[in-house]
Amino acid sequence: MPLTDSIDDYPQGIIIPIDKPWRWTSADVIRKLKWAACKHFHNKKLKVGHAGTLDPLATGILLVCIGRATKLADELQAHEKEYEAGIVFGATTPSYDREKEIDKYYPLGGVSREAFEAVLPGFIGEQEQVAPLFSAKSVDGVRAYEMARKAYKAALNGDAAFDHGASELLSKQKINIPELELLEFGDTGVCRIPLSATAVPEGEIESRVNPKINVIDISALNLPCALVRVRCTKGTYIRALARDFGEELGSGAFLASLRRTRSGGFTVSEALSVSDALISLGFDN
Questions:
Q1: Choosing from 8, 19, 28, 55, which is the catalytic residue?
Q2: What is the pLDDT of residues 2-13, one digit of tens each?
Q3: pTM for this entry
Q4: Which of 39, 94, 115, 160 has a 20 to 30 A CA-CA distance from 186?
């Protein structure tokens, strides 16, 4: 539905649930929609932000706030989230997802559908979680990802292996996972990845990925994988959850895909594509 061209018609501001494209940063989405919103409402100083970052290789609902709705961002971000996460077992990456190359393979003797189902109840409820080293957490005033980048560069140069244990420098954070459900399990890497990480219609705006976002090819990996539904509180790192799943099974694991299906009262079924959002702001791509 097209928006009027006066922001005064929206005294509470505007919240647009966007289905964030794959290999777009949350900032990419805001940059695109802020440009369009400022043009549409004839206001160069119009505030546009989001309520809860999604990693570049994740898709799903991103709440874009325009005008006075930006004041609600913290409140909206505090609500529960729901995700579908694709997890590969038997290997790890420094980032715990597909942005970095696999750095180690692990035994698979303890990995099976039955074993995974048995450990899942232990992850339900209130708990403490250590964030990934590739995160915005701080250690003595230094962003964790800055430390991680230096360690990763050293590993690429062959100076030393990437130290996954360095994440223990980060303080643990209390989280809550009220619901955790195994949707699928594949013994040979054939479980469904809930993300269109392959074909996006040529010419559509969603196909204009950020070239700075790396993604490793996992199509040839013959490793077990699972698709899990997670309902959790603010601050939960699904990448870290994947890591912990692997460790609990005596193996390694990383996040192969992630889709946020709900944020508070907003569901991905009602979310707009970036293209549709631009149309509502009077721009056709």
A1: 55
A2: 899 999 999 999
A3: 0.88
A4: 94
